[in-house]
Amino acid sequence: MGDAFCSDCKRHTEVVFDHSAGDTVCSECGLVLESHSIDETSEWRTFANESGDNDPVRVGGPTNPLLTDGGLSTVIAKPNGASGEFLSSSLGRWQNRGSNPDRGLITAFKTIATMSDRLGLVATIKDRANEIYKKVEDQKSSRGRNQDALLAACLYIACRQEDKPRTVKEICSVANGATKKEIGRAKEYIVKQLGLETGQSVEMGTIHAGDFMRRFCSNLGMSNHTVKAATEAVKTSEQFDIRRSPISIAAAVIYIITQLSDDKKPLRGFDRFELFFIKWKQMIHWWIESDISEITLFYQFYLDKPFSIVDFKHR
Questions:
Q1: 162 and 191 in one domain?
Q2: Can you say how many angstroms the Cα of residue 35 is from the centroid of all Cα atoms in its chain?
Q3: Helix H segments across the chain?
Q4: How far apart (Å, rounded) are the C-alpha atoms in residues 293 and 110?
Q5: Are residues 227 and 185 part of one domain?
Q6: Which GO terms describe its molecular function (predicted)?
């Protein structure tokens, strides 16, 4: 309710706002003072644990260039029209049964979005995964393959290309039952298909041990000083020719640092995050033989304790 000047009543009267029609109506004579007004208030938001299937949002999502119509098609969502007249429920059923060339893509994009949210990935990685899946789907050669593994592989490749790599184990944890072997095969298939399309090898991005350090240290609940020491240690390890998996190197560095500090972690704690180990004593011996002064410096600086080779060798 509010006050406004009515041209018929020749005075200020109380008015009623009809939000569904966007009209401002005089409460005394019924004159429509303003029509089709725009509601500038904030839009409703729907959260995962609220509203159930009742979505109060009155607008659609953003346009999607990967879909045929940009994602702006019209659907019959409610049995009542804008005028309030009852519409047959069969209209909505017939529309759902109609041909929709993007139905499979929409379902796949929703699955990728769900996996991205569960892994806490940024929107750019999700969009890149959508693009990769769209390119593979356009070739019409993925029929009969495990769809969950294919989508998980798209997300894995997108993480690599955006320099935010995730381990296959992490991707597998949100892949709706797809195994590591299936995801690996799907990844090889996608890389092969994209290579045939472009005529050149697909750039996957290089994985470094430092890409996993912050996340692994956070999962293990390590202190800030220990994390800084592990970060410096993994930078030092890049100077050596350690022909092991970056995940293994990251695991070994974390274990070495925790054993040298007061923040010790048992080996079974690393198994929770699928960290594979190399011979960590051999690697620390390489560092010691290479530059004992540099190692001693950052251990003492970050861990605030003296570095003892003898103590470490007897662990």
A1: yes
A2: 43
A3: 89-97, 103-119, 123-138, 147-161, 168-172, 180-198, 210-219, 224-237, 246-260, 267-271, 280-290, 292-303, 309-313
A4: 53
A5: no
A6: TBP-class protein binding; zinc ion binding
